[in-house]
Amino acid sequence: MITTITKRDGRVAFFDINKIANAIEKAFQATSGTKSYATCLEMAQEVSDYFEKENIDSPSVEQIQDRVERVLIDHGFVQTAKAYILYRAERTRIRNMNDRLMKTFEDITYKDATDSDIKRENANIDGNTAMGSMLKYGSEGAKHFYESYVLNPKHSEAHRNGDIHIHDLDFYTLTTTCCQIDLLKLFEGGFSTGHGVLREPNSIASYASLACIAIQSNQNDQHGGQSVPNFDYSMAPGVAKTYKKRYRSNLASLIEVMDSEEHAKAMKEAFVKLEDMGLVPTLDKNETYDAEETKLAEEIGIPVEIYQKAHAFTVKKSTEETDKETYQAMEALLHNLNTMHSRAGAQTPFSSINYGMDTSTEARMVMKNMLLVTEAGLGDGETAIFPIQIFRVKEGVNFNPGEPNYDLFKLACRVSAKRLFPNFSFQDAPFNLKYYKEGHPETEIAYMGCRTRVMANVHDPEKEITPGRGNLSFTSINLPRIAIMANKNIDWFFNELDHKTDLVVEQLLERFEIQAKKKVHNYPFLMGEGIWIDSDKLGCNDEVREVLKNGTLSVGFIGLAEALKALIGVHHGESEVAQNLGLDIISH
Predict the structure, then answer these.
(1) I want to staple 21 with a disulfide (CB 3.0 to 4.6 A). Which of 40, 78, 185, 335 is the partner?
(2) Handedness of CA 483, 488, 491, 495 (dihedral sign)
(3) Span 72-89, average pLDDT
């Protein structure tokens, strides 16, 4: 008579026939073919009798389960046997996942980052720190949970086997990837980070500071890169406000020194009158402003010669001071984006800025100084990792000698040769130019942290613009794996690539359904502050489904060169035939 069983870990436990009967009963319930418990107990007895007959005193759990399947099939309950097999497979998968999770936690706890692939998985996280380790605990635990309980089993298996890679699996049910933040829109009237409202900035230093805060805040709502698509346009008003402030302060001070305190006070009052007329001092010569200011200076009684000298010196001095403040603001931005943290203090925000197209004097000052501080490097001269910088290139703007920003293009080339940044985006490339509308900066192509862009819009073709949109999810196909399995059969390769692409599309759409059910309050900055396009039209408890449709789901790939080597023995850099095949694969 059987009295014990041998468990998977080698421990011996008491044999309980009722546990077998219960498992059989659940299998019947799963196939809508419920049987009485007595019937299930009879089958369990057959299992026990088999081991007694075979003189197996302490059968293993696996042996018992194998025998249950056999008994069910022998009685003609094939569908029930299949349900039992699936139940076994799922329990085994979860058990293995739990075992693997504990091993993963052990690595995070006791191994140094130099010895742990998991701790070094994200170069933007220091896995040796308390917050970095805690983030990895949560990340790895979430991945295991999603693989075991959330993902469609075939998607989970494909990811686990390496056929595909589901990016940012740890955020699978939580958020989207990245966004192109329109700072012009955000700064107007100020914004909230959830702990109070920040006023609209009034200097280039404030503009740069709030740009970093916006990037950091949005990074806490998403797992991917944060991009400013219109950095030059967005920072230019900050330069204008700084110049206005410096000009007024300098001119009033000079009049006080060169003439009288009374006239200086009157000049300050004149500035208010001028602003009421819609006139402010600007970096560019403004004849209308100059004429009105001169007129008011005469009315105040400031001697003409003193005013002219004070005015000329003020323009020169204020321009120099504004340029210096802009350099310092860009330097602060560069340092902040390489030191400030998001995600529970464990990660530097993945940031990008795009510029090059704004030809205004203010924007040119921003771009020049951004490039100069990038060239100078960080505190010890090291190359800054963030922000990733993209210089937009376009004929008529900056590509040819004599064009308004050509000098900046040359400077960008010099800085890129030394610091790897900026990268370059050619607006006249056919796939970019098709969207471009002159005079509409929102149609200029911009790129995000992972060098991706979002421009086409199948959901709403009227909104094929850059700001306020981003990628929702990525999944990549492992091309070398398919190529190796194809065994040089190119037709088979393309057929299998179709299957994998269909699988990825199905998985991305399932993930979208999860994201679409989120509410505005799940994204307090991204949606609550109207960063994402049309989210300002939603209420706090509204679903974000419709506005997310302005984003993209991305099917990616990896390993084209290796796939070509596996298919025909050479890669696209070694053979024209391979290059043509590579282009066919990517076009496909």
Answers:
(1) 40
(2) negative
(3) 84
Residue pointed to by tokens 């980052």: 113
Q: What does the alpha-carbon distance between residue 505 and residue 503 come to, in Å, rounded to a whole number? A: 6
Nearest CA among 201, 219, 221, 197 for reference residue 210: 201
Alpha-carbon span 494 to 586, nearest angstrom = 11
**Of 233, 232, 237, 231, the residue nearest 214 (C-alpha):** 231
Helix axes 490-516, 479-486, angle to 10 degrees: 150
Two tokens, residue 391: 């210089």
d(CA 350, CA 388): 8
**Token pair for 226:** 């944060």
pLDDT one-digit tens code per residue, 518-530:
999 999 999 999 9
Q: Is 12 exposed, middle or buried (0-12, 13-18, 19+ CB in 10 A)?
A: exposed
Token couple for 235: 């920072």
- C-alpha to C-alpha distance for 86 and 93, rounded to whole angstroms: 10
CA distance 422 to 409: 10
Select from 581, 578, 555, 566 the least CA-distant residue to 499.
555
Confidence at residue 10, expressed as pLDDT on a 0 to 100 scale: 79
Q: At what angle do helices 361-376 and 406-419 cross, to 10 degrees?
A: 20
Short-list 531, 376, 508, 386, CA closest to 449 = 386
Phi, psi for residue 446 in degrees, rounded to 5: -130, 165
Question: Within its chain, how far is the Cα of 502 from the centroid?
Answer: 24
Q: Is the four-CA dihedral 576, 581, 582, 583 of positive or negative sign?
A: positive
Residue owning tokens 């933007």:
124
- The 3-class secondary structure across 222-276, one letter per residue, is CCCCEEECCHHHHHHHHHHHHHHHHHHHHHHHHHHHHCCHHHHHHHHHHHHHHHH
Peptide bond into 422 cis (omega under 30): yes
- Which pairing describes strands 191-192 and 197-198: parallel, antiparallel, or unpaired? antiparallel
The CA distance from 315 to 243, in Å, is 9
The answer to whether the CB of 470 falls within 8 A of the CB of 523 is no
Half-sphere exposure of 97 (CA within 13 A, CB side): 19
Strand runs labelled E in 72-137: none
Dihedral class, residue 205 (left if φ above 0, else alpha if ψ from -120 to 50, else beta): alpha
Does position 268 have pLDDT exceeding 70, yes or no? yes
Q: What is the CA radius of gyration of the chain?
A: 33
For residue range 306-348, what is the model confidence (pLDDT) as tens digits? 999 999 999 999 999 999 999 999 999 999 999 887 766 667 8
Report how far apart, in Å, the C-alpha atoms of 464 and of each of 344, 390, 435, 532, 550 are.
Answer: 35, 20, 7, 14, 9
Mean pLDDT of 25-38: 82
CB atoms within 10 A of CB 393: 20
Nearest Cα to 525, choosing from 222, 311, 271? Answer: 222
The per-residue pLDDT for range 165-184, each reduced to its tens digit, is 999 999 999 999 999 999 99
Q: Residue 360 in contact with residue 397, Cβ under 8 Å?
A: no
For 280, the 3-state DSSP assignment is coil
